[in-house]
Structures are given as C-alpha cells and as structure tokens.
Amino acid sequence: MLCACTAAAAIAGAAPEGQQFKSGTDLVRLSAVVTGRDGLLVRGLTAGGFEVLEDGVKQTVSAFAEGGQEEIPLHAGLLVDRSGSMELDLREATNAAIQFINALDEALDVTFVDFNSSIRIGRFEPQSYPHLFERMRDQNAEGMTALWDAVGAYLRNASSRTGQHVLVLYTDGGDSTSRLRFDQLLTMLRAGNVMVYAIGYLENQLSSSRTTGQMYLTNLAKEAGGDAFFPSSPKELHKIYARILDEIGSRYTIGYVSTNTKPDGKFRKVQLKLTNPDHKSAKVRTRTGYLAPVPAGR
Asked: Averaged over 69-82, what is the pLDDT?
C-alpha cells in the first residue's frame, strides 16, 4: 500500500517563502477544499492562510499549490453501480458520468470500475475515452452490490501511481455481498491518498436501509476529505457532478514533512485550520489523517 509519506514530485511555484518542494522528500500531502458559510468555495488563499496540526503538533508547510499543477498529476476514478436495482436509472447515471469525464480536462486518465456481484476495472487515457464511453453505455443492470470490494479494487489499483487521486462513486443501495469489511476499507483509505466523493441515490431503499447507507457513504467521504451527496432524483446528478468538478479545480494542495520521524505504522490525525480571522466561519475539508510508514522488513 502506498503510504502518504511516499516520495513525491515537486509542487512548483507556490511554495511558501520561495521554497521549492524537491522530489525525494518524505512528504505528507493533503488535498483540501474550503467553503464559506454560504457554501461557496473559498479561493485565493495562500500557504500562510493554513495551519497544519498532526496529532496536535504544529507542522511547517513546505509546499503549497492552488488548483491543478502539472507537477502533481491528477488521476480520476469513477465507480458506477450496475446491480439489479439500477435498471431504471442506469442510463441517466451513465450519461451524467460521461459528461463529468468530458469536462475533467485536468485528469491524465480515468480508472473506471463498474460493479454488481462482480467487478470490472480498466484505466483509460483521454485518447481512449470513446472506448470507455462505449463500455459505459454497454451495461446491463443485474446482480448484487459489492460496493466495498469495488472501492478496495480501485484503491489497490491507484496505489501504484504517484500524484493526486480523486474517486467519484455512484450507487443506489448499500453493500450486499462484499468480502471486504467497511473497517478494512477505511484502513486502506488511510494508507493511501485518495479524495472520495460518494453519490448515493437511495430513495428506493427502505427508510432504515437508507439511513444506514447514508451513514456509511458519509463516513467514507469524510475519511478521505471529499463529500457525500444524496439526490432525490437521478436528474440531480448533472448538478452534483458540476459541483464536484468545481471543487476539484478549486482544491488546495498542502505538503509538509512530519516532525514525527518514527516509522511505527500508526495512524496520525491531521487537522487543517485557517489562520485569517476573516475566514473564521469557513470550513476546511481534508482527509482525517494517514498511516505512518512501517519499519523496513515488516
């Protein structure tokens, strides 16, 4: 599993105090989204506008960028549920997802995972998007929902590639057949660095199942610094994908070298705070933390 402290490429241009982040440095990299009280995205912040705490200890920001950077390649992931309950909504979900991919110019590639009882996964670069779209449209809704296994398959696939990773998943129900437990999935998220957006169209579920599904998807997105959306109709998907695109383009990337040098493999809690009193009502979303590296040979 690729640890958050793995060596990474340089974040150019916006490093605090003129510093350049150099490859080979053990970096903890955070992707963050800042929203105001009105829900609008807050743009134009600088490195000095953020304070980073790791397990309550203040860290020094050594690298910073707003929006996309060529030096930090973006890899996108898209998970689409094609279980039997998706029969009436699969076309609408597919069309919205294709529109999202076409608008995500920054991504170097898209890893597409469609799942029911089984999982299919493939990675496509922009020149092969027509093949991807053909595959997305050529789907039938059938079988059960191996949601956690599908997310886990994506995380394992993403762990071999450096850069930033954003995963968007769409489902109309809860997991029903995965071998992977939810707590194991959270551990995998903490060992990597993937921002997750979860879209759950759960209106056709029983009230109790809908509440449970919302809880799981919200926790999944919160752990990974993303967000969860629960539309009341598939027609809302285009608006939701547009919001996710806006957040991806407005994200901040913050890097620091941890003052804790112990390779103990333990979870380290991370907090991001805004230093400017004018932004005291704003909210910062980032992943909750990361797993430290383990000693060599373990």
From this structure: 90
